[in-house]
Specification:
Blueprint (H helix, E strand, L loop, with lengths): L2 H32 L7 H12 L3 H24 L7 H39 L2 H7 L4 H40 L3 H11 L2 H28 L5 H30 L3
Length: 261
């Protein structure tokens, strides 16, 4: 193999990667630029918010309940070794609001709503519906992508809030009702130890960032896919994989920035 062929094989994937970054950046900027048009047709946003958020509510609620119950059970066994079981409510609340609520909600959202968005956009492209919109002078980015993007950005923080609230209830059921931790200590420790801005607000910011990342990745994968069933299936898989890795990376970066002091 000559040096020229080696450089060609090395440079082609790098060039495609740089092109995909540029294409994604242009797509994101176009969605943001065309988003004010949603003010004239809010029904598009409401419909997508119902489709993305309401249909994800069941899995988010049940997952939050069981995660809270497990966290309460494991937390009690750990705290009981040090005679600090009265701090169980604080442990459950901090674990959910800071980390588990935003992260698990984002992962579930990527698996449920993200794949749905990718498949929907990919099938619309395969069926030439997006091309038909362009022929009718309708911008598919404004008509199709922007409502779904902002619906995802709004839905993820709301779902994360529901997840954390139901998770606290699950921890209460296990810790207070099942094990017998003092109810007053459970709620008072939680109230005194959880800070609205440092804990709850930072968790909310995390969920907003996750919502932006997941929804854009899902829409990008569906919009740039080739109009074939095989490539649509591969795009759906890429949505889950890339979104999951992005969530963990963003979670580490945001945690380092928010809770380093």
């Amino acid at each position: 193999m000559t040096v020229r062929n080696w450089l060609s094989q090395l440079g082609a994937p790098l060039r495609d990667y740089i092109e995909s970054i540029g294409y994604g950046a242009r797509l994101f900027l176009n969605m943001v630029r065309l988003s004010p048009g949603l003010l004239r047709r809010p029904r598009l946003l409401i419909e997508q918010l119902h489709f993305i958020g309401n249909y994800s509510m069941l899995i988010i609620t049940l997952s939050g309940l069981f995660v809270g119950m497990v966290l309460g059970l494991q937390g009690y066994y750990t705290l009981n070794k040090y005679g600090a079981e009265q701090s169980l409510g604080l442990l459950v609340a901090l674990g959910l609001t800071r980390e588990l609520g935003p992260v698990i909600t984002a992962l579930l959202f990527a698996g449920r709503a993200g794949t749905s968005l990718t498949a929907e956009i990919g099938l619309m492209k395969a069926g030439e519906q997006l091309s038909a919109m362009e022929m009718m002078a309708v911008n598919p980015i404004q008509r199709v992508l922007a409502p779904r993007f902002w619906a995802g950005v709004i839905a993820v923080p709301l779902l994360a809030s529901v997840f954390s609230a139901v998770g606290v209830l699950g921890g209460y059921l296990v810790g207070v009702q099942l094990i017998g931790v003092d109810e007053g200590a459970f709620w008072s420790q939680m109230q005194g130890g959880v800070d609205v801005w440092k804990d709850i607000f930072n968790g909310f910011v995390k969920s907003v960032v996750f919502g932006i990342a997941i929804t854009f990745i899902a829409l990008y994968q569906g919009y740039q896919t080739q109009p074939t069933p095989e490539d649509v299936a591969r795009a759906t898989t890429r949505t889950v994989v890339i979104s999951s890795l992005m969530i963990w990376w963003l979670d580490f970066m945001l945690t380092a920035l928010m809770f380093s002091k």
